[in-house]
Amino acid sequence: MSQAIESILHETRLFPPSPEFAARANVSGMAAYQTLVDRAQADHAGFWLDMAHEHLTWHKPPTRALDESNAPFYKWFEDGEINVSHNCLDRHLDTQPDKLALIFEADDGKVTTITYRALYHRVCAFANALKAQGVKEGDRVLIYMPMSIEAVIAMQACARIAAIHSVVFGGFSAKSIQERVADAEANTIITADGQFRGGREIPLKKAVDEALAMGGCESVERVIVYRRTGSTVQWHEGRDLWWHDAIAGQPEECPPTFVSGEHPLFILYTSGSTGKPKGVQHSTGGYLLGAVTSMRWVFDLHPNDIFWCTADVGWVTGHSYVAYGPLALGATELIFEGIPTYPDAGRFWKMIQDHRVTIFYTAPTAIRSLIKAGTDLPRQYDLSSLRLLGTVGEPINPEAWMWYHTVVGQERCPIVDTWWQTETGCHMIAPLPGATPTKPGSCTLPLPGIAAAIVDETGHDVARGNGGFLVIKKPWPSMLRTLWRDPERYQATYFPNDFGGKTYLAGDGAQRDEDGYFWIMGRIDDVMNVAGHRLGSTEIESSLVANPLVAEAAVVSRPDDVTGEAVCAFVVLKAARPTDHAEAKRIADELRNWVTQQIGPIAKPKDFRFGDNLPKTRSGKIMRRLLRSIAKGEAITQDVTTLENPAILEQLTASAY
Ligand code: PRX
User: Fold this and answer.
1) Which residues, judged by CB distance below 6 Å to any ligand atom, belong to the binding site of ligand 1?
2) pLDDT value of residue 620
3) In this predicted structure, what is the pLDDT of residue 316?
4) 194 alpha carbon to ligand 1 midpoint, in Å?
5) Average pLDDT over residues 491-515
6) Which whole-number Å values give the CA distances from 235 to 205, 225, 281, 297, 574, in the listed order?
7) How far apart are the C-alpha atoms of 549 and 92, rounded to whole Å?
8) Helix (H, G, I), strand (E, B), or coil: what is residue 342?
9) Contact assessment for residue 298 and residue 390, using Cβ atoms and an 8 Å cutoff
10) What is d(CA 371, CA 397) in angstroms, rounded to the nearest whole number?
11) Which of 304, 332, 471, 521 is the most exposed place for a label (fewest CB within 10 A)?
12) How far is the CA of 418 from the centre of ligand 1 (A)?
């Protein structure tokens, strides 16, 4: 950690918002920010109750914000009654029915738009279709869809009838679907025949069929299939149903099911450091409030903005800032089916130009890959519509920040570097662009009502400038409520007794500088961050060990120019260690394909190293720190005297495949 602290402390550049930007911002100037912070500090629950009344439309407004009686199982707005889809659609029908809600650009460039009124009717029709199929309040619905208007409709329709959705990223494998269906006991799957990405057609329904054939998915009663690619799919009569047949004849009005503020809105699975993925469970009222306040504060949303968050609905960013937050505020947003480098690396810039995007939100990994593809490419497009840029998912290195600022933002647009997590539901630490002066590489200051701090192992605040554990000291409305059917793991992971049992442990290391700005230093556990997405080393190791060739495996990450971190696998084969390069390469490729099938391409190790054994302490623990040094190609300076078999270091350092 100390090295990271030193390097970031050299960053002294400061970028205050321009007076023009500040003048029209929702939160204008640091004094306005401080007023909100002070209000929340004086009365935490009261502040959030005011926000909930001000920003959400309740069927029955809550009388009380926070119930702490069963901490850390906090409850927010429990006696309020609300529906998320009602907030996203119905409340705009009188004021702006003809405003565009979604602008969808397909992989091939074809554009489809939909107004608020039309979206409302389509969500209602699909919600009625789900009801007609027997989907009820509280049922789990797994969504495995391409980026599309229909994906948003599927999520909104679930919210409308108070079914709990669990979206699985379209890049995940059949095995991942099977695990999530089994854990959530979903009775319905909504998918598509396939999707287009980068000019290629990728099947989706096939993965669902494979998942359901694996067993453990007996809860599934129906699979609804949206026809996207038109390719042939296998059909299971009695179980499978086309989307267009399901909605045929369904009324385009469907009264929303109002639920308690605490009703679960969705489960989203995310990697943990040990064992199976965690089913992060979010609420209805508190979650929506976080999405809405952060849209206003951090994205500074105004009525005529064209908002574009490039995240897929399979990630939390695509929940809060594609499916819910922008619609709740009545924004016009762009959604995109394809990838940033197809047909060429100018795609994002062309789309910003064509749709006159004003707010653009993406991940550092995308920025780095586009820098690599051509630093000058953005200059070939008219990016004058942009007024605000954002990043999320991992620390952005100051060089990439400066490029984003100068070349994309043309030194005109503030950058909001937003720190948050699947578990936090919405932005937690981020600049308010009309107030906070930014520093390249820092996510700056906590949002109003967010009690972020940095503490040592004993839970005590560390001195400014020292690194430590990033924690949130008070509950906040959009926090996860539990892990699906695993309250013990929720408590042990996020509210460990070492920190007093009521402080949320984020799992990231961080430090604060002399101005109180936060600098995130990365994960403190064995979770890797590849291309802005968390991957647990255990999951990848388990998948490797499940391959018949593999006896033992350990997975660590190393820095990578484009993806931030790359996965490196250290493998002991059941047969002899391959000494022939061609043979080693062939096995490495075979194992890469295996992990792709088991988990998905994102988890595929970049490097493979083979040894007769793994470096272990005498008590049998794998020396991960040592593996990290080898993966980075560093000289080994650590004490290796406790190593059981020093000779294997030579084998592991020799070559990567
Ligand atoms: O390590 C932090 C990193 O991403 C983790 C959360 O990952 P996930 O739940 O997949 O959600 C990603 C999108 C919200 C965090 O624990 N992270 C996220 N944003 C930032 C970040 N690291 C540094 N700076 C950020 N802005």
Assistant:
1) 270, 316-317, 392-395, 417-422, 443, 506-508, 520, 523, 529, 533-534
2) 66
3) 96
4) 29
5) 94
6) 10, 10, 32, 47, 40
7) 58
8) coil
9) yes
10) 12
11) 304
12) 8
Nearest CA to ligand 1 atom 22: 394
For the segment 302-327, what is each residue's pLDDT rounded down to a tens digit? 999 999 999 999 999 999 999 999 99
**Nearest atom (ligand 1) to Cα of 420:** 14
Going across the sheet that includes 564-573, the strands are 550-560, 564-573, 607-610
Give the three-state DSSP class for 432.
Answer: coil
Determine phi and psi for 339, rounding to 5 degrees: -125, 155
For residue range 94-147, list pLDDT tens digits in order: 999 999 999 999 999 999 999 999 999 999 999 999 999 999 999 999 999 999
Alpha-carbon gap, residue 457 to 75, rounded angstroms: 27
Q: To test ligand 1's pocket by mutation, which of 361, 389, 391, 394 has the most ligand atoms within 8 angstroms of CB?
A: 394
Distance from the CA of 519 to the center of ligand 1, in angstroms? Answer: 12
Q: Which pLDDT score, from 0 to 100, does residue 318 have?
A: 97
3 CA to middle of ligand 1, Å? 20
Helix (H) or strand (E) holding 47: helix 44-55
Q: Which helix (H) or strand (E) holds 130?
A: helix 116-132
- Give me the pLDDT at residue 421, please: 96
In the chain the first and final C-alpha atoms are separated, in Å, by: 29
Residue 43 is classified by DSSP as -
- Largest separation between any pair of C-alpha atoms in the chain: 74
Q: Is the peptide bond before 605 cis (omega within 30 degrees of 0)?
A: no
Segment holding 105, helix H or strand E: strand 100-105
Task: Choose among 425, 168, 184, 178: nearest CA to 314.
Answer: 168
Residue 287 in this model has a pLDDT that exceeds 50? yes
Answer yes or no: are the C-beta atoms of 215 and 125 closer than 8 Å.
no
CA of 26 from ligand 1 middle (Å) equals 25
Task: Report how far residue 492's alpha carbon sits from residue 496's, in angstroms, rounded to the nearest whole number.
Answer: 5
Weakest mean pLDDT among 62-66, 510-514, 520-524, 565-569: 520-524
Ligand 1 atom closest to the CA of 506, numbered from 1: 16
How far, in Å, CA of 157 to CA of 153, rounded? 6
- Distance (angstroms) between ligand 1 centre and the Cα of 534 equals 8
Q: pLDDT exceeding 70 applies to what percent of the chain?
A: 96
Average pLDDT over residues 576-593: 95
What CA–CA distance (Å, rounded) separates 62 from 655?
62
Specify whether the CB–CB gap between 148 and 192 falls below 8 A.
yes
The pLDDT confidence band at residue 6, using thresholds 50, 70 and 90, is very low
- Closest to 68 (Cα-Cα) out of 452, 486, 473: 473
Distances in whole angstroms, Cα of residue 540 to Cα of each of 176, 327, 431, 591 = 12, 36, 35, 11
How many angstroms separate the alpha carbon of residue 609 from the centre of ligand 1?
28
> Residue 253 half-sphere exposure, CB side, CA atoms within 13 Å?
2
| Banded model confidence at residue 233, pLDDT cuts 50, 70, 90 | very high
* Residue of 11 and 575 predicted with greater confidence: 575
Distances (CA, A) of 100 to 89, 307, 330, 342, 355: 12, 11, 9, 26, 12
DSSP type of residue 647: H
Contact between 82 and 55 (Cβ < 8 Å): no
- Of all atoms in ligand 1, which is nearest to the CA of residue 520? 23
Q: Tokens for 206, please give them.
A: 């096939």
Closest CA to 121 of 247, 223, 288: 247
* CB neighbour class for 298 (10 Å; exposed up to 12, middle 13-18, buried from 19): buried
3-state secondary structure (DSSP) of residue 424: coil
Q: Is 557 helix (H, G, I), strand (E, B) or coil?
A: strand
